[in-house]
Amino acid sequence: MLKLFKIIADAGEATAKYPFAPFPVSPGFRGKPELDATQCIACAACTTACPANALTMDNDTATGIRTWQLHLGRCIFCGRCEEVCPTHAIVLTPTFELAVANKDDLLQKASFRLQDCSACGRPFAPAREIDYAMALLRQSGVAVDEARRAEFACCPACKRAATVARDAVSQHLSPEAEQ
């Protein structure tokens, strides 16, 4: 009988002390996603990649604000948002205890300012996304001046109209067009 008690004492405890002690998670565990809004450029890549539609982005053109939302009640913790984020603003944490008393506590929000078009004045894209594109150009060695910045700060409709007008003028002035 004493031999049995010695074997049990040597074996240790078979169960975890959870919830009285924190439960250790294994490396690579995919828990609650968290957004670092200071790194986010509001490009919406995460919302496109989310298979559960837990991530959404809404544009309010009247106020010039893009709102990012994460509904943790819908999240399946697949990690696609973390994979596609170009600035690593979303990371999956080891937090897995998400029980709340109020359903609204499962909703996370962040707001971003939209850039106004330099031609028509309507908001069209997040200012941070344009700044990020300009920084990537500088990093690759492309000279970035105010003319290039104005080109990036123009909405697609105004860019298209300017390109069509420029092409019409260049075709009209080219020697081949006269023949």
From TrEMBL:
One function term, GO molecular function aspect: metal ion binding
Coiled-coil residue windows: none
GO cellular component: membrane
Name assigned to this protein: Hydrogenase-4 component H
GO process terms (BP): aerobic respiration
Domain of life assignment: Bacteria
Keywords: 4Fe-4S, Iron, Iron-sulfur, Metal-binding, Repeat
Source organism: Paludibacterium purpuratum
Keyword Nuclease: no
Domain 4Fe-4S ferredoxin-type residue range list: 31-60, 66-95
